[in-house]
Design goal:
The protein is of the alpha/beta class. It is 38% helix and 21% strand. The longest helix is centred in the N-terminal third of the chain and has 14 residues. The protein is globular, with a radius of gyration of 18 Å.
């Protein structure tokens, strides 16, 4: 089967490319309290993914931080990312293939993957039409019955983080944070770049509109990321396991989905 023609899409925003070209993303999930996001992503995906070997497309896979452990687990992983630095870093990860690409126009054949992961692209697509295009591309390239998992940043993650860091008491930062809480759009004039912070109900709606059947949602950090001792707990293997177990108990509780910084939505292409 020949490669499907890719739709024309706008270029990735320059400020997003510039933000990730700083080289900070590779280490972000490897240290401090951010390790909770990494370990919880592993925890959820290892329960959802088919048994290895299976073919996984890691869209917006960054430096390969998830592709690395997926390959170690025995999966056949192809990584796609638009950031040149990420591609250089990911190319050093053993056992994966790497190529430049955009989530909205994947250079892959129809029904060619068992799993498609979008663990970064959706929250850097502020326009709903672009998010639908990315999910439609995931739907196209995953096989019938295959799994699609996408990450979103929750609407009030910025507000929660500003309180945690004690930045919310600055009037300018507070006004900007409150505005983002209202409309979800981060303009990139703060510590983060252009992004969209979604309400928990939005991803399932976009999945369904793209032809995917939603199977579940999973809050990654729960309330643990907002507790002052979490970094110390993660350093202790026994306490870390207790934290992960606690977050597993509440991960799909509807009343708590919005407390996590990040949310995973999982769905399937109909057989």
């Amino acid at each position: 089967m020949t490669e499907t023609a890719r739709p024309q899409v706008p270029a990735v925003r320059e400020e997003i490319l510039a933000y990730y070209s700083r080289g900070e993303e590779d280490g972000r999930l490897r240290r401090g309290s951010n390790r909770l996001e990494l370990w919880r992503t592993q925890d959820v995906l290892r329960r959802l993914l088919p048994t290895a070997p299976a073919k996984v497309l890691d869209v917006g896979g960054g430096s390969g931080i998830h592709a690395e452990w997926l390959a170690r687990d025995g999966y056949e992983v192809d990584l796609v990312d638009p950031v040149p630095l990420h591609l250089e870093q990911a190319a050093r990860v053993p056992g994966i293939t790497v190529r430049a690409g955009d989530a909205r126009a994947l250079a892959a054949e129809d029904a060619s993957y068992d799993v498609v992961l979008l663990l970064g692209p959706l929250y850097h697509l502020p326009e709903r039409a672009d998010r639908l295009r990315a999910l439609s591309e995931a739907h196209r390239v995953v096989r019938p019955g295959g799994l699609v998992v996408a990450a979103t940043i929750n609407r009030f993650a910025g507000l929660h983080d500003m309180l945690l860091q004690e930045w919310y008491f600055d009037p300018v930062r507070r006004a900007n944070t409150d505005a983002i809480s209202n409309h979800g759009r981060n303009g990139g004039d703060g510590p983060f770049t252009t992004a969209y912070f979604a309400q928990p109900h939005e991803a399932p709606e976009e999945f369904m509109e793209s032809g995917l059947t939603v199977e579940g949602q999973y809050g990654l950090e729960g309330v643990a990321w907002l507790m002052g001792g979490v970094e110390r707990w993660l350093d202790d293997p026994d306490r870390r396991e207790a934290v992960l177990a606690a977050m597993r108990r509440t991960e799909s509780e509807p009343t708590l989905l919005g407390t996590s910084g990040h949310l995973l939505t999982a769905g399937r292409k109909r057989s």
